[in-house]
Design brief:
The chain is of the alpha/beta class and 307 residues long. The chain has helices spanning 2-46, 57-65, 99-103, 119-127, 141-154, 158-177, 207-214, 232-238, 256-260, 269-273, 281-285, 291-305, and strands at residues 52-55, 72-75, 109-113, 131-135, 187-195, 198-202, 218-219, 227-230, 242-246, 276-279. The chain has 3 domains: 1-30; 52-177, Rossmann fold; 187-305, Rossmann fold, CATH 3.40.50.1980. Helix 2 links the parallel strand 1 and strand 2.
Length: 307
Protein backbone atom coordinates (compact mmCIF):
# COMPACT_ATOMS: atom_id res chain seq x y z
CA UNK A 1 0.00 0.00 0.00
CA UNK A 2 2.82 2.42 0.87
CA UNK A 3 4.49 1.70 -2.43
CA UNK A 4 1.28 2.55 -4.29
CA UNK A 5 0.93 5.85 -2.36
CA UNK A 6 4.54 6.74 -3.03
CA UNK A 7 4.08 6.11 -6.76
CA UNK A 8 0.91 8.21 -6.79
CA UNK A 9 2.66 11.09 -5.02
CA UNK A 10 5.57 10.81 -7.41
CA UNK A 11 3.22 10.97 -10.39
CA UNK A 12 1.50 14.04 -8.98
CA UNK A 13 4.85 15.73 -8.42
CA UNK A 14 5.92 14.93 -11.94
CA UNK A 15 2.64 16.33 -13.27
CA UNK A 16 2.99 19.51 -11.23
CA UNK A 17 6.58 19.85 -12.41
CA UNK A 18 5.58 19.45 -16.01
CA UNK A 19 2.79 22.00 -15.58
CA UNK A 20 5.22 24.43 -14.00
CA UNK A 21 7.71 23.96 -16.81
CA UNK A 22 4.98 24.48 -19.40
CA UNK A 23 3.77 27.59 -17.62
CA UNK A 24 7.27 29.03 -17.47
CA UNK A 25 7.82 28.27 -21.13
CA UNK A 26 4.54 29.99 -21.95
CA UNK A 27 5.60 33.07 -20.01
CA UNK A 28 8.96 33.09 -21.76
CA UNK A 29 7.35 32.72 -25.18
CA UNK A 30 4.92 35.54 -24.41
CA UNK A 31 7.77 37.77 -23.33
CA UNK A 32 9.69 36.99 -26.53
CA UNK A 33 6.65 37.72 -28.69
CA UNK A 34 5.91 40.94 -26.79
CA UNK A 35 9.51 42.07 -27.04
CA UNK A 36 9.61 41.32 -30.73
CA UNK A 37 6.40 43.25 -31.30
CA UNK A 38 7.70 46.20 -29.30
CA UNK A 39 10.94 46.14 -31.25
CA UNK A 40 9.02 46.12 -34.51
CA UNK A 41 6.91 49.08 -33.37
CA UNK A 42 10.03 50.96 -32.31
CA UNK A 43 11.67 50.14 -35.61
CA UNK A 44 8.62 51.33 -37.51
CA UNK A 45 8.52 54.56 -35.49
CA UNK A 46 12.21 55.17 -36.00
CA UNK A 47 12.28 54.22 -39.66
CA UNK A 48 12.45 57.43 -41.71
CA UNK A 49 10.30 57.77 -44.76
CA UNK A 50 12.47 58.13 -47.83
CA UNK A 51 9.97 59.00 -50.58
CA UNK A 52 7.77 61.80 -49.32
CA UNK A 53 5.14 63.71 -51.27
CA UNK A 54 4.15 67.10 -49.86
CA UNK A 55 0.74 68.53 -50.69
CA UNK A 56 0.73 72.20 -49.75
CA UNK A 57 3.31 74.90 -50.38
CA UNK A 58 3.98 75.64 -46.71
CA UNK A 59 4.71 71.98 -45.96
CA UNK A 60 7.20 71.81 -48.81
CA UNK A 61 8.91 74.97 -47.54
CA UNK A 62 9.16 73.42 -44.09
CA UNK A 63 10.78 70.28 -45.49
CA UNK A 64 13.42 72.45 -47.16
CA UNK A 65 13.87 74.58 -44.04
CA UNK A 66 14.53 71.38 -42.09
CA UNK A 67 17.15 70.31 -44.63
CA UNK A 68 15.21 67.15 -45.53
CA UNK A 69 14.56 67.96 -49.19
CA UNK A 70 16.47 64.94 -50.48
CA UNK A 71 13.55 62.81 -49.26
CA UNK A 72 11.04 64.57 -51.50
CA UNK A 73 9.67 62.31 -54.23
CA UNK A 74 6.94 64.72 -55.29
CA UNK A 75 5.13 67.96 -54.49
CA UNK A 76 1.92 69.68 -55.47
CA UNK A 77 1.52 72.60 -57.87
CA UNK A 78 1.25 75.18 -55.07
CA UNK A 79 4.76 74.26 -53.89
CA UNK A 80 6.82 76.87 -55.72
CA UNK A 81 9.48 77.80 -53.17
CA UNK A 82 12.42 77.52 -53.04
CA UNK A 83 13.46 77.55 -56.70
CA UNK A 84 15.04 74.11 -56.36
CA UNK A 85 11.59 72.61 -55.81
CA UNK A 86 10.88 72.85 -59.54
CA UNK A 87 13.25 69.90 -59.93
CA UNK A 88 10.83 67.76 -57.89
CA UNK A 89 7.99 66.05 -59.81
CA UNK A 90 4.65 67.88 -59.70
CA UNK A 91 1.82 65.47 -58.80
CA UNK A 92 -1.05 67.92 -59.31
CA UNK A 93 -3.01 70.72 -57.70
CA UNK A 94 -3.75 70.39 -53.99
CA UNK A 95 -7.55 70.13 -54.42
CA UNK A 96 -7.57 68.33 -57.77
CA UNK A 97 -5.24 65.40 -57.14
CA UNK A 98 -5.51 62.14 -59.02
CA UNK A 99 -4.41 58.80 -57.55
CA UNK A 100 -2.34 58.10 -60.67
CA UNK A 101 -0.41 61.35 -60.36
CA UNK A 102 0.51 60.74 -56.73
CA UNK A 103 1.27 57.03 -57.14
CA UNK A 104 3.46 57.69 -60.18
CA UNK A 105 6.33 58.84 -57.93
CA UNK A 106 6.11 55.72 -55.71
CA UNK A 107 5.79 57.53 -52.35
CA UNK A 108 5.94 55.93 -48.92
CA UNK A 109 4.47 58.98 -47.14
CA UNK A 110 2.09 61.74 -48.11
CA UNK A 111 2.15 64.93 -46.06
CA UNK A 112 -0.99 66.89 -46.92
CA UNK A 113 -2.50 70.11 -45.72
CA UNK A 114 -6.05 69.90 -44.46
CA UNK A 115 -8.41 70.30 -47.40
CA UNK A 116 -6.28 68.39 -49.90
CA UNK A 117 -8.35 66.24 -52.19
CA UNK A 118 -10.73 65.45 -53.62
CA UNK A 119 -11.82 63.04 -50.84
CA UNK A 120 -12.18 60.09 -53.21
CA UNK A 121 -8.53 60.46 -54.23
CA UNK A 122 -7.43 60.46 -50.60
CA UNK A 123 -9.57 57.36 -49.96
CA UNK A 124 -8.02 55.58 -52.94
CA UNK A 125 -4.50 56.37 -51.72
CA UNK A 126 -5.35 55.06 -48.26
CA UNK A 127 -6.75 51.87 -49.79
CA UNK A 128 -3.45 51.49 -51.64
CA UNK A 129 -1.76 51.25 -48.24
CA UNK A 130 0.00 54.61 -48.29
CA UNK A 131 0.75 56.45 -45.08
CA UNK A 132 -1.05 59.80 -45.17
CA UNK A 133 -0.58 62.47 -42.53
CA UNK A 134 -2.97 65.42 -42.66
CA UNK A 135 -1.65 68.65 -41.18
CA UNK A 136 -4.27 71.13 -39.89
CA UNK A 137 -4.37 74.52 -41.64
CA UNK A 138 -5.38 77.60 -39.69
CA UNK A 139 -4.30 81.08 -40.64
CA UNK A 140 -2.56 82.00 -37.41
CA UNK A 141 1.00 82.50 -36.25
CA UNK A 142 0.57 79.62 -33.79
CA UNK A 143 -0.42 77.25 -36.57
CA UNK A 144 2.85 77.91 -38.38
CA UNK A 145 4.69 76.54 -35.36
CA UNK A 146 2.30 73.58 -35.17
CA UNK A 147 2.92 72.77 -38.84
CA UNK A 148 6.70 72.84 -38.38
CA UNK A 149 6.49 70.44 -35.45
CA UNK A 150 4.05 68.14 -37.27
CA UNK A 151 6.35 67.85 -40.29
CA UNK A 152 9.37 67.28 -38.06
CA UNK A 153 7.60 64.49 -36.18
CA UNK A 154 6.42 62.84 -39.40
CA UNK A 155 9.96 62.83 -40.79
CA UNK A 156 11.56 61.70 -37.54
CA UNK A 157 13.52 64.94 -37.07
CA UNK A 158 11.73 66.44 -34.10
CA UNK A 159 14.85 68.06 -32.67
CA UNK A 160 15.52 69.92 -35.91
CA UNK A 161 11.86 70.95 -35.99
CA UNK A 162 12.02 72.27 -32.43
CA UNK A 163 15.00 74.44 -33.37
CA UNK A 164 13.26 75.75 -36.49
CA UNK A 165 10.06 76.37 -34.53
CA UNK A 166 11.93 78.37 -31.90
CA UNK A 167 13.70 80.47 -34.53
CA UNK A 168 10.45 81.04 -36.44
CA UNK A 169 8.61 82.02 -33.26
CA UNK A 170 11.25 84.61 -32.41
CA UNK A 171 10.97 86.13 -35.89
CA UNK A 172 7.17 86.16 -35.69
CA UNK A 173 7.28 87.85 -32.30
CA UNK A 174 9.58 90.55 -33.68
CA UNK A 175 7.40 91.09 -36.75
CA UNK A 176 4.18 91.29 -34.76
CA UNK A 177 5.75 93.43 -32.06
CA UNK A 178 6.92 95.93 -34.64
CA UNK A 179 3.43 96.50 -36.00
CA UNK A 180 2.05 98.57 -33.16
CA UNK A 181 -1.35 100.15 -33.76
CA UNK A 182 -0.51 102.82 -36.32
CA UNK A 183 -2.08 100.89 -39.19
CA UNK A 184 -5.24 99.77 -37.41
CA UNK A 185 -7.44 102.29 -39.27
CA UNK A 186 -6.09 101.45 -42.74
CA UNK A 187 -8.69 99.45 -44.68
CA UNK A 188 -7.35 96.94 -47.18
CA UNK A 189 -9.27 95.21 -49.97
CA UNK A 190 -7.73 91.93 -51.07
CA UNK A 191 -8.65 91.19 -54.68
CA UNK A 192 -8.06 87.60 -55.72
CA UNK A 193 -9.10 88.28 -59.30
CA UNK A 194 -11.44 90.09 -61.63
CA UNK A 195 -13.92 87.82 -63.35
CA UNK A 196 -16.49 89.19 -65.79
CA UNK A 197 -15.72 92.63 -64.41
CA UNK A 198 -16.56 91.60 -60.85
CA UNK A 199 -14.18 91.81 -57.92
CA UNK A 200 -13.45 88.47 -56.25
CA UNK A 201 -12.59 89.61 -52.73
CA UNK A 202 -11.35 87.97 -49.54
CA UNK A 203 -13.74 87.82 -46.61
CA UNK A 204 -13.33 86.30 -43.18
CA UNK A 205 -11.60 82.96 -42.52
CA UNK A 206 -9.08 83.47 -45.31
CA UNK A 207 -5.31 83.69 -45.36
CA UNK A 208 -5.60 87.19 -46.82
CA UNK A 209 -7.87 88.38 -44.02
CA UNK A 210 -5.44 87.05 -41.41
CA UNK A 211 -2.38 88.58 -43.07
CA UNK A 212 -4.04 91.98 -43.31
CA UNK A 213 -4.72 91.81 -39.58
CA UNK A 214 -1.22 90.58 -38.73
CA UNK A 215 0.18 93.56 -40.64
CA UNK A 216 -1.81 95.91 -38.42
CA UNK A 217 -4.56 96.83 -40.88
CA UNK A 218 -8.24 96.00 -41.33
CA UNK A 219 -9.99 93.96 -44.00
CA UNK A 220 -12.27 96.34 -45.89
CA UNK A 221 -14.72 93.59 -46.84
CA UNK A 222 -16.33 91.43 -44.16
CA UNK A 223 -19.68 89.77 -43.56
CA UNK A 224 -18.90 86.48 -45.33
CA UNK A 225 -16.34 83.69 -45.17
CA UNK A 226 -13.95 82.72 -47.92
CA UNK A 227 -13.59 84.38 -51.31
CA UNK A 228 -16.65 85.81 -52.99
CA UNK A 229 -17.60 88.03 -55.88
CA UNK A 230 -18.82 91.33 -54.48
CA UNK A 231 -20.85 94.07 -56.09
CA UNK A 232 -19.40 97.40 -57.14
CA UNK A 233 -21.62 99.04 -54.53
CA UNK A 234 -20.12 96.88 -51.78
CA UNK A 235 -16.59 97.92 -52.74
CA UNK A 236 -17.52 101.59 -52.98
CA UNK A 237 -19.23 101.44 -49.61
CA UNK A 238 -16.17 99.76 -48.07
CA UNK A 239 -13.93 102.66 -49.17
CA UNK A 240 -10.61 100.73 -49.05
CA UNK A 241 -7.42 102.70 -48.57
CA UNK A 242 -5.31 100.01 -50.25
CA UNK A 243 -5.90 97.22 -52.75
CA UNK A 244 -3.79 94.12 -52.08
CA UNK A 245 -3.22 91.44 -54.71
CA UNK A 246 -0.91 88.60 -55.58
CA UNK A 247 1.71 89.49 -58.16
CA UNK A 248 0.48 86.89 -60.63
CA UNK A 249 -0.41 88.37 -64.01
CA UNK A 250 -2.80 85.64 -65.08
CA UNK A 251 -5.91 85.93 -67.22
CA UNK A 252 -8.08 87.21 -64.37
CA UNK A 253 -5.60 89.21 -62.30
CA UNK A 254 -5.76 92.46 -64.28
CA UNK A 255 -3.04 95.05 -64.76
CA UNK A 256 -2.44 97.75 -62.16
CA UNK A 257 -4.24 100.27 -64.37
CA UNK A 258 -7.22 97.96 -64.86
CA UNK A 259 -7.52 97.45 -61.12
CA UNK A 260 -7.20 101.07 -60.08
CA UNK A 261 -9.58 102.34 -62.79
CA UNK A 262 -12.18 99.64 -62.17
CA UNK A 263 -15.61 101.26 -61.63
CA UNK A 264 -15.81 99.80 -58.12
CA UNK A 265 -12.34 101.01 -57.10
CA UNK A 266 -11.66 104.23 -58.97
CA UNK A 267 -13.72 106.39 -56.57
CA UNK A 268 -12.29 104.85 -53.40
CA UNK A 269 -9.26 106.22 -51.54
CA UNK A 270 -7.22 103.33 -52.97
CA UNK A 271 -8.20 104.22 -56.53
CA UNK A 272 -7.80 107.97 -56.11
CA UNK A 273 -4.33 107.62 -54.56
CA UNK A 274 -3.11 104.73 -56.70
CA UNK A 275 -2.57 102.55 -53.64
CA UNK A 276 -2.05 99.02 -54.94
CA UNK A 277 0.29 96.49 -53.33
CA UNK A 278 1.25 93.21 -54.97
CA UNK A 279 3.18 90.36 -53.37
CA UNK A 280 4.12 86.78 -54.23
CA UNK A 281 1.16 84.58 -53.47
CA UNK A 282 2.85 81.82 -51.48
CA UNK A 283 5.02 84.33 -49.61
CA UNK A 284 1.97 86.38 -48.66
CA UNK A 285 -0.61 83.67 -48.01
CA UNK A 286 1.39 80.51 -47.35
CA UNK A 287 1.66 80.72 -43.55
CA UNK A 288 5.00 78.95 -43.51
CA UNK A 289 8.56 79.65 -42.31
CA UNK A 290 8.75 82.96 -44.27
CA UNK A 291 5.55 84.49 -42.90
CA UNK A 292 7.38 86.74 -40.44
CA UNK A 293 9.21 88.29 -43.39
CA UNK A 294 5.93 88.63 -45.29
CA UNK A 295 4.31 90.45 -42.38
CA UNK A 296 7.21 92.87 -42.21
CA UNK A 297 7.22 93.48 -45.96
CA UNK A 298 3.47 94.00 -46.08
CA UNK A 299 3.55 96.41 -43.17
CA UNK A 300 6.42 98.32 -44.80
CA UNK A 301 4.50 98.51 -48.10
CA UNK A 302 1.47 99.93 -46.33
CA UNK A 303 3.57 102.49 -44.47
CA UNK A 304 5.26 103.68 -47.66
CA UNK A 305 1.87 104.51 -49.13
CA UNK A 306 0.99 106.85 -46.31
CA UNK A 307 -2.65 107.69 -45.83
Amino acid sequence: MNVIKQRANHSRLLSLGNDLIAYCMLLLLSAIVATGAANRVMADEARPYERVVTIGGSLTEIVYALGEQERLAGRDTTSVYPQAVFGVPDVGYIRQLSPEGVLSVNPDLILALEGAGPPETIDTLKEAGLSIITVPERYTADNIIEKIKAVGEALGVSQKAEALAEETQERLDLALGANGQDGSERKVLFVLSLRSGKVLAAGNSTAANSMIGLAGAENAITGFDGYKQVSDEAVITAQPDVVLMMNSRGNHSGSDTEILTHPAIVSTPAGKNGHLVRMDGLFLLGFGPRTADAIGELKSSFDKLGR
